[in-house]
Amino acid sequence: MFTPPQKPWQKAADWAKRRIWVQKLNNPLGIALLLLLTLPLSWVLSKFDLKISALLFGGLVGLPLIFLCLIHSVTALGMMLFTAVLVVFGAKFTGAPIGTLLDLLILVSATGILLRQIRERDFSFLKTPLSYMVMVWLYYNVLQVLNPGAESKMAWLYTVRSVAIQQIVFFIGAYAFKDNLKGLLFLLKFILAICFLGAIYGLKQQYLGFSAAEEAWIYADPKRFELYYQWNMMRIPSYCYDPTTFGILMACFAMMCVALFIGPTKPFQKILLGLGFITAMWVMGYTGTRTAFVLVPVGAVFYAAMTLNRKVFIAALFFGLLGTAFVLKSSSSGVVYRIQSAFKPKEDDSMNLRLANQKKIQPYIQSHPMGGGLGSCGVWGERFNPDSELSHFPHDSSFVRMGVELGWIGLFLYTLLHYFVLRTGLYYFVRCQDPMIKTIYAGISTWCFMLAVACYAQEAILQLPMNVIYNIFLGILVSLKRFDPTYSQT
What is the pLDDT of residues 465-489, one digit of tens each? Predict the structure, then answer.
């Protein structure tokens, strides 16, 4: 059959249709159009005031990303991780309420999931014991707004974000990973990359110094300066808000590197993981965080007991002997002395003071089943209830804070939540057979166990970016088993 030749305008129309609608501008034409579009856009932005131009530019970049977070949960989780780091790092340079950006991402992503459930009707990602426990925890924290013993509703509003609302990230992760192993592994690598870059930046702060803006921020508050400058050394926070959070993050990251290194990873990956472990342990010493120094051997013992690996036991014993010799060694170095003091709690005035405070607050916790209300302690307590005795109580520990603010009922639920997290990791570790999946379960379970231990001495989980990382890991714990064909519930 004879086909008449196309006219030039028809050829041009077919060429454009192919590149725009079929290839969706994923070609040189799309790149050229974007580059051309930047020229008039740059000219328009240059005509406005700097703040207005920055706001417009943020909108042009942010709105497409927000839409992407609405329809793609893995991208939303990646944005949350990036934002969690940006919030705590940016707080040192600006007073703008950038923390609300993380809340916005959580809201948008959760809304997207609810809208998709109208069509999918698949709530299997919620049907796990850990999910039910998290729901109970969320409900109790929201119910605290009716606590008759609470003195401020505003303190509850500001605190519930970090204690409960950000835990919605767990449900977003459970949904995003239920049939997306590639996305799960991407976010795991992204978390490791964030931790490694944080370690590198921490070493930069130690050897090249803080930036002028960081120094100004530290010196602006006398209490903050006392926290940073101890034992004739400046403690290193990297991108975290305080050195304590960064030290705990590095301890967990180091043990995760060990778990993945021992697992069936490729030689090049083992080199990167070994480098990550060395860097994390190196910079952890400069954080001056005694809790972190204790967490490493605690995590090593837990991992060895979990995997029952003979080589791991031998390595743990060897490094345990080296660590004992290191603790007994005398030194005039502030870094070394700080590490040694972590393993001598009876000689630690700070630990003795914390134990005395815990003993002092026990009668209050026992007589107030729902506590004094979220936000009654710490920063928000001092801001909204400055005349309250609780606002000046140095709670330090997450468990103590939960007991004071949420009562012994909340303390019980918080302890139960940690139990369900560890039970989930151990349960699926035993029942999965795929070597890589077992390795990831072992690494994340060790991370979560170390944080549970850290919560006794510090507020280890409530701080960013640890909060977001922790809840993404919980989403991985309940989802990873789906990708093991040999998984058995018996």
Answer: 889 999 999 999 999 988 888 776 6
For the residues of 334-398, what is the DSSP string, one character each? Answer: HHHHHHHHHT-GGG-HHHHHHHHHHHHHHHHHHH-TTTT-TTSSHHHHHHH-TTSSGGG----SH
**Separation of alpha carbons 33 and 470, rounded Å:** 41
Taking CA atoms, 417 is separated from 140, 143, 251, 412, in Å, by 12, 17, 22, 9
Residue 239 neighbours by CB distance under 10 Å: 22
The number of residues in the chain equals: 490
Decide if pLDDT at 224 tops 70. Answer: yes
| C-alpha pair distances (Å), 255 with each of 359, 437, 463 | 33, 17, 20
Q: Dig out the tokens for 348 from the structure.
A: 């630690």
CA distances from 184 to 47, 166, 483 (A): 44, 19, 11
Identify the CA nearest to 124 among candidates 77, 169, 171, 193.
171
DSSP notation for 54-101 = HHHHHHHHHHHHHHHHHH-HHHHHHHHHHHHHHHHHHTTT--S-THHH
CA distance 303 to 306: 5
**Closest by CA position to 396, among listed 460, 307, 487:** 460
Q: Which residue has the tokens 């139990």?
A: 419
- Contact between residue 248 and residue 292 where contact means Cβ atoms under 8 Å apart: yes
| CB-based contacts of 19, cutoff 8 Å, min separation 6 | 25, 27, 29, 30
Question: What pLDDT, in 10s, does the model give residues 236-285?
Answer: 888 888 888 899 999 999 999 999 998 888 899 999 999 999 999 888 88
Q: Which two tokens stand for residue 444?
A: 């994340």
Distance CA 428, CA 477 (A): 8
Identify the H or E element spanning 234. Answer: strand 233-234
Exposure of 384 by Cβ count < 10 A (0-12 exposed, 13-18 middle, 19+ buried)?
A: buried
Concatenate the DSSP letters of all residues of 120-157 into one string.
H---GGG-SHHHHHHHHHHHHHHHGGG-TT-S-HHHHH
Secondary structure class of 229 (helix, strand, coil): strand
Angle at 86 between CA 82 and CA 88, to 5 degrees: 125
The DSSP letter of residue 330 is: -
Model's pTM, two decimal places?
0.83
Location of structure tokens 């468990």? 399
Which helix or strand (DSSP H or E) is residue 233 part of? strand 233-234
- Assign residue 2 a region (left: φ > 0; alpha: ψ between -120 and 50; beta: otherwise): beta
